[in-house]
Amino acid sequence: MTTETQVMRGLDNVVVASTQLSAIDGTAGRLSYVGYDIHDLAERATFEEVFYLLWYGDLPNAEQLSQFNARLRAERALSADELALVRNAPRSGHGMDALRTLVSALAQLDEQADDTSPAGAERIGIRLAAKMPTLIAAWHRTRSGAEPIAPDEQLGHAANFLAMLHGGANQKAMETFLAIGRPEQARPYIDQLVAQHGRLMGVGHRIYKVEDPRVRHLRKQVMALGEAGSGEWYQVADAVGRVIMEHPHFTQRQLNPNVEFYSAPLLYGLGLPLDLFTTAFAISRIAGWMAHIREQLADNRLIRPKADYHGPAPRAFVPLAER
Description:
Low-confidence stretches: none
Distance between the termini: 34 Å
Strand order of the largest sheet: 1-2-3
Strand content: under 5%
Structural class: mainly alpha
CATH architecture of the domain at 169-274: Orthogonal Bundle
Number of helices: 14
Mean pLDDT: 85
Order of helices and strands: EEEHHHHHHHHHHHHHH
Largest sheet: 3 strands, antiparallel
């Protein structure tokens, strides 16, 4: 008698590492970074401060932040060879395809790309975080027939990206808002979608069973953008959000608007093309991705999951002429 192996599809609930970086309580809707509540960080800290926190375990003082910003500024500009990569990259396709290709190509121009020592990983992380906004902004301008704009040393990380750019799931969420068109169309659109067993993008989360704590701050930014005259799509998103919160199909399944839901009208209001929405997430999340990579490199273990075999029993090989 054989014992059936339990297969955890998608590695659900399998703990493969310990981390000091973030903690999530999906039932209570809590999220913290290195012990700091997400609400405190979102309302009182800059992106660069949170970046520093994830990498070094504490919020920086003024001098530490100044030095960290200087390191980012020093890596933002593209060399002639790096700019040539952008100019020669295909101009069709999705923005994430372009970003993935350009980031991979950066390694070809880095003589120390294989140095994954603590210092090496830190250098590579700074380089990637600094250059990713410049790469995607330059690629977008190139495909639009415009010349790339060099980064401005007086601007911060996010402001630089927008300045160089002017002239994913969140993309799909925005496409839904565009299809709905007006706030009063939210309820009939969703009713029809549910009747057809369609999927509403930007709703639901694998962990959060209540509102995603990040939504509060994205909603606030969209409202501020609307007050400035650039966020008319907030009204559509807000109408959809109200329908979701009262619709039995969503309430019974504990499905709430997630981080993509309000990031969609925010990025759209800032002028980003739809196919650059996911790249905007990548540009910010590289700070956390690299923090996790540095943690895993310190443990120096490869993740080696196993598969349970359910194929044919052992059988004899048959020569080609006899098959």
